[in-house]
Every structure is written in C-alpha cells, then in structure tokens.
Amino acid sequence: MKTLFVALVVTLGLVGCAGMGGGPGSGSQTRSVGQAVDDAVIVTRMNAALAADPDLSAIKINVDSTKGAVRLRGEVKSLALRRKAEDLARRMDGVRSVDNQLVVTG
C-alpha cells in the first residue's frame, strides 16, 4: 500500500511538471495530460523494478519517458546488466521504444 501511495505522489508530481518540457524529443512536441500520466507510470514502475532487482541500481540508473519512448542513462557494472535493464524496460506496459545510454563501468 505504501508503494502505491508513493507511486501516486510521484505520478501527480510529474503530471504537474508535464507542461514544462524537457526529456527525450521534447523540442516542439507537446504531450497531453494522459500521455504525461502514462509516462509517469512507466517511470515509476521502472524505478520500482530497478529498486527490487538485486543486480541493478535505481540510484545509478536514470529513467525518462516521453510518449512511451524510454531513455536509460547512468552506469552499470557489466554488459549483461546493461542488457537486463533494457529488457526490463521493454517489458513495461506502454513502452514503445528504449534508448539505452547506460555506460558499462566494470
């Protein structure tokens, strides 16, 4: 229940910032409130999945989503973990594409 509450708070906070721009492909494109909520849900679920995975770090991996296009940035310890994070993102409902910019540091 606590996780659901945190996800709701994060989602509402991101919806409030939806009109501010930023993120992948923000240029002149605009998102509807529904798209912003969908993106916030993707980011929240992805961050929760990263936090739950003992091999991946939600602290070292940044997740952005715009219109279902997810961008992963940050550091991982191996190529296998880079692929694991990308596969995790691709399996999320609503994800249309994944831009994996994770850097292998180990």
What does this structure look like?
- The protein is an alpha+beta fold and 106 residues long.
- It has a single domain, classed as GMP Synthetase, Chain A, domain 3, CATH 3.30.300.
- Helices cover 44% and strands 21% of the residues.
- It contains three helices and three strands.
- The chain has helices at residues 2-16, 33-52, 79-90, and strands at residues 61-66, 69-76, 97-104.
- A three-stranded mixed β-sheet has the order 1-2-3.
- Helix 3 (79-90) links the parallel strand 2 and strand 3.
- Helix 1 (2-16) packs across helix 2 (33-52).
**Major sheet characteristics:** 3 strands, mixed
Rg of Cα set: 14 Å
What order do the strands of the largest sheet run in, or round the barrel if closed? 1-2-3
CATH class: Alpha Beta
The shape is elongated
Q: Helix and strand succession?
A: HHEEHE
CATH architecture: 2-Layer Sandwich
* Low-pLDDT sequence parts: none
Give the termini distance in whole angstroms.
Answer: 36 Å
Topology readout:
Layout: H1 2-16, H2 33-52, E1 61-66, E2 69-76, H3 79-90, E3 97-104
Helix pairs in contact: 1-2
Summarize the structure.
This protein has 106 residues and is of the alpha+beta class.
Question: Key features?
Answer:
3-stranded mixed β-sheet, single chain, 106 residues, 44% helix, alpha+beta, GMP Synthetase, Chain A, domain 3, elongated
